Amino acid sequence: MSGVASPSAPAGLMGQFLASPKAMISAAVALLLILSAGFAPLIAPHDPFALGTFNLMDSELPPVWAEGGDPRFLLGTDTQGRDVLSAILYGMRVSLIVGFAAVALSAGIGTLLGLLAGFRGGWLDAVLMRFADVILSFPTILIALLVSGIARGVLPDARQGDYAIYVLILAIAINEWTQYARTVRGQTMVEASLDYVKAARISGLANGRILGRHILPNVLSPVIVIATINLGLAVLAEATLSFLGVGMPVTQPSLGTLIRIGNENLFSGVWWVVVFPAATLVMLVLSVNLFGDWLRDALNPRLG
Amino acid sequence: MRSIPALDNRLRIRGLEVLYGGAAAVDGIDIDAVPGEIVAIVGESGAGKSSVGAALLDLVDPPGEWRASEMTLDGVPIDYKRTHVRGRDISVIFQDPQTALNPLFTVESQLVHMVRHHLGLSQAEAKRRAVEMLDEVGIADPETRVRAYPHQFSGGMRQRVVIALALACRPRLVIADEPTSALDVSVRAQILELIRSICRDRGMACLLITHDMGAVAAISDRAVVMRHGKAVETAPTGQLLAAPTAPYSRTLIAAVPPVDRKIDRFALPDTGAVVSDPSLERWLRANETDAAAVPLAVTGLGKTFGARGFLKRGTPVHALKDVSFEIGRGEIFGLVGESGSGKSTLAQIAAGLLKPDQGEVRLLGKPFSAATPDRALRRYRDGMQMVFQDPFSSLNRRMSVLDTIMEPMHGVPRAEALRLVPALLERVGLPPDVMTRKPHAFSGGQRQRIAIARALAGRPSLLICDEPTSALDVSIQAQILNLLKDLRDDLGLSMLFITHDLPVVRQMCDRVGVLHRGSLVELGATEAVFESPRADYTRALLSYLPHLPELQPAS
Amino acid sequence: MLPFLIRRLGQAFLVVLTVGLLSFLMFRFVGDPVVSMSREDATVAEREALRESLGLNDPVPVQFATFIGRAVQGDFGISYRNQRPVSDLIAERLPATLELVFAATVLALAIGIPLGVVTALRPRGALSNIVQGVSLVGVSTPTFVTGIMLILLFAVTLRWLPSFGRGETVDLGWWSTGFLSASGWRAIFLPALTLALFQMTLIMRLVRAEMIEILQSDYIRFARARGLPDRSIHYRLALKNALMPVLTITGMQIGGLIAFAIVTESVFQWPGMGLLFIQAVQFVDVPVMAAYLMFVGLVFVALNAAVDVTYALVDPRLRVRG
């Protein structure tokens, strides 16, 4: 009797990764950006928050290769004389913190609710899924704006800046948990209907053990894929809200805030203030998306 | 059997090869067919028989490719670059009528499109032809039905529509690719008969690609037995079934359960003696419960689905109606029925996975009814294990064989389990060193053996087998059935054996119940039921089954 | 068909009610309406009088009923910021947004569907590779960045097209349109393209995925095996099946476009409802936020219902029971 090897053995994931230039390049770019954001205080040439060090003489300097560029400011300066490169590094840091936190929050809540809804069924399932339906039938941006608007009305004015980051994380996570919940619920229902779960039940395993030992490991790969793809989406959502002026304040700018500030000066020809943050944002999201795309094909889970 | 003069050949193929990458799915096959003849291409999964059909239609999916040293239709080489070869000269009947028809177009529009394209008929002529075709394949009231959409036909009728589409341009050769595998036994016989009669009446040659020896016996004139891409034997059907010459054909035919007689064990080539460890036997028997308790008693069981809830208007489906039977100690009780007969519902209820609406089940004396609380179910299931139909879904793909088999062993110390699991694997005919591997490393038959080992690890008195072999090839089925019988004989297991396959029932079961639309229409000793069925339904079911000639001993 | 319609109507009603409740809760409990609506120097007595006249002393369920009753008559209260009836503000901004969404939808369908079909039929062709690459960059680029880049190119550098506003509009009495003037057409081009890009990618990917899947389906294989020509298999048979989900997604996405228009309108200073809403969020102008939410909710429900009914009419499996 000869064994039959399955084409998508989990052990082969690393091998598939090393065989795919798309996966390796996108992972490398994403990792580079994430690390440089993480170590921004160490590698940024200037401190974009030390207002005292700014010199108006240095304001609106173009990038170093353009005419009038200054070697101290690689990507030029903004209207206040702030180094654009440093601002981008710190801004990306804020964007990524919001992105990762939103993904962690939504993945945790969504997976848990999805497992419960899929396994228990009944009223719990009905209520959760109708709720998710309502959220899903409204565009992300609208719900995020509403959360942000409500927060503005409820929180004291003076503390808004401090709370902005938490409001953003919540505004994004409140949209995204539904996707995990739906997918995990669907996958849980599929798994729970499979005969091995019946066999486990016949063998006397309690529900909790069946969920933890049998179902959870089998529903995790779509969660990982969605989390990767959603990191890109969360960074985009953050940038959009900040661009619209309801996200991160100017005192603590994210990439979106930087683009907003730059956009206000677009017609004075100071293009580098907007183009470089925008390019960084696109590069970050693109590399994460490409990697997520590859991961989805490699793990090939059913996504709901 | 008629002789086949070479000049009369409708189809003549020499040296057909189908290659995927470097591997040959079909490795040099010769096929001939005369007008009106049905030639069966028979083999198990992976034999390459479907690739033969794909090549004949020039539909081998890239990167696969095919070639043949000679391929003629009525003496003329087949040129697939000509537009009307496919559809007008050579046509095909697909396997699954549920998916073979475009859901968005009426039957008429699909038929008209087809004949207008190939035969250049006018719209009015094409419409007339569409109605004729439906009439010819036996669809009542064709003038009205022609304007229906595919979903408005039942499975068997839909397959007739598929046949009408395939034959609308009166092809000279038709390839029937597993044309009845997706159908119930009663419909299967009718569809085969339809193909038979159309081929005879029209003088159309037919290649019947199938794994079903029953279909081969029922309608084919000659058969080509395929294995690993090669034809191991080509012979007139009657001769092949009674006295196969190639060893593989012999094994294959010996593995087919006959409906008209009972054989003790399937005659299979020696697959290695089953090793039985005495200490394992002792452990398995140590769980003996109250010897007097009836393994399974079912009384007045009823179950209804659907028709509950707000605004959910649907007719309630009575999956089971007042079903009663008992299984004695060491007995294999067969429950047989077509799809939708309620047999799987009954298996779920007996296993405590689904609550009945009426009546009661007693498993080793423990009652289970609508009133039984959920927390009592774990105790109820004690002493019972189950083997499922699909060996791909019955094992957790992320768990090793060892963990899988250990799962039902409650309170067994790990050290002892590590001694018992290899012994169990050997008991079901697997090498003990596969313990650490995961399910993807095994074939369907091997997985089913693992599932049986897991069931044994629960030390059951009653084993529920829900279609345990219907997903398997026939030679693997024979091995698994032999194994189950051995286990019953050695361990005194009682079994509830659920299947749609009457010949399997005859070979396996001591007593049998026939389910029809949720009711038990027949109950009795297997031999009595097969020799003189009392219910009309049983008689009808048995009449659909082709009889295979008795296999003559190898010369 | 009838039970299906009843169930859909029930669901729609539930969604509208939920959205209404949300709007109400926001209106009532986010900030204090009395503080927002009275002058800074109002006395306690004046505020109490206002509270009474707004009905804020009634039991909450009664307030909810009143709120819904007024909303049904198109009365959403007075904007805190502009001191004008919210319904007037919305009526004034509605044409701009709807014209933008309409133009974007036409653009997205007209480009997205053909591209999807072509890339599905020749998945390894040069065009497919280019389109796939561009669409990957497309989904990774936020709308506002696309808009800014288009402005930078066409308005700032080339000076071909205006970067903000609607251009000259013609007032038809009940509707003010930009489609009747050359400057209106010039003004709508960049915002419509910006808004359409994301939908275009979405539709293209959807058509492509559906086509590829359908081309591998049994019934297409059967059609091919019966010798039907590729042309009619692709465009007559498969495309019809592939367009079914496009219908759904497009219908639903029109609602999404209205909301996504918030960003586009913000970039191009397009005087539509989105701009109104984003200003309302910035200034916590709750009546406007609540009204906008109700409006989008209604549009969604209406579109969903329209899609369902169309689907039921187009798909024989739903139209006739077998």
TrEMBL record, chain A:
Entry's Gene Ontology BP terms: transmembrane transport
GO cellular component: plasma membrane
Domain spans labelled ABC transmembrane type-1: 92-292
Keyword tags: Cell membrane, Membrane, Transmembrane, Transmembrane helix, Transport
Compartment annotation: Cell membrane
Record-annotated membrane-spanning stretches: 23-44, 94-119, 131-151, 219-250, 270-292
Cited InterPro entries: BP-dependent_transpt_permease, MetI-like, MetI-like_sf, OppC_N
Recorded coiled-coil stretches: none
PROSITE patterns hit by this protein: ABC_TM1 (PS50928)
Protein's membrane topology: Multi-pass membrane protein
Family stated for the protein in its record: Belongs to the binding-protein-dependent transport system permease family.
Protein name: Peptide/nickel transport system permease protein
Organism: Jannaschia seohaensis
Source taxonomy: Bacteria, Pseudomonadati, Pseudomonadota, Alphaproteobacteria, Rhodobacterales
Automatic annotation (TrEMBL), chain B:
Predominant localisation class: membrane
Gene3D superfamilies attached to this UniProt entry: P-loop containing nucleotide triphosphate hydrolases (3.40.50.300)
Cellular component GO terms held in the UniProt record: plasma membrane
GO MF terms, alphabetically ordered: ATP binding; ATP hydrolysis activity
Record InterPro entries: AAA+_ATPase, ABC_transp_ATP-bind, ABC_transporter-like_ATP-bd, ABC_transporter-like_CS, Oligopep_ABC_C, P-loop_NTPase
NCBIfam families: PRK10419.1, PRK11308.1
Bilayer topology: Peripheral membrane protein
Gene Ontology BP terms: peptide transport; transmembrane transport
Localization terms from the record: Cell inner membrane
The keyword Transport appears for this protein: yes
Entry protein name: Peptide/nickel transport system ATP-binding protein
Family: Belongs to the ABC transporter superfamily.
Keywords from the named record: ATP-binding, Nucleotide-binding, Transport
PROSITE patterns named among the record's database cross-references: ABC_TRANSPORTER_1 (PS00211), ABC_TRANSPORTER_2 (PS50893)
Domain named ABC transporter: residues: 11-253, 296-542
Pfam families attached to this UniProt entry: ABC_tran, oligo_HPY
UniProt keyword Glycoprotein present: no
Organism: Jannaschia seohaensis
Automatic annotation (TrEMBL), chain C:
Keyword rRNA-binding (UniProt): no
Localisation per UniProt entry: Cell membrane
Membrane topology per record: Multi-pass membrane protein
Principal place of residence: membrane
Domain ABC transmembrane type-1 span(s) in chain numbering: 94-311
GO biological process: transmembrane transport
Gene Ontology CC terms: plasma membrane
Keywords: Cell membrane, Membrane, Transmembrane, Transmembrane helix, Transport
Highest taxon listed in the record's lineage: Bacteria
InterPro entries (UniProt xref): BPD_transp_1_N (IPR045621), MetI-like (IPR000515), MetI-like_sf (IPR035906)
CDD domains recorded: TM_PBP2 (cd06261)
Transmembrane segments: 12-30, 100-121, 133-161, 173-198, 242-263, 290-314
Entry annotated with the keyword Calcium: no
Family matches, as PANTHER family: ABC TRANSPORTER PERMEASE PROTEIN, DIPEPTIDE TRANSPORT SYSTEM PERMEASE PROTEIN DPPB-RELATED
Membership in a protein family: Belongs to the binding-protein-dependent transport system permease family.
Name the UniProt record assigns to this protein: Peptide/nickel transport system permease protein
Originating organism: Jannaschia seohaensis
Lineage, top ranks: Bacteria, Pseudomonadati, Pseudomonadota, Alphaproteobacteria, Rhodobacterales
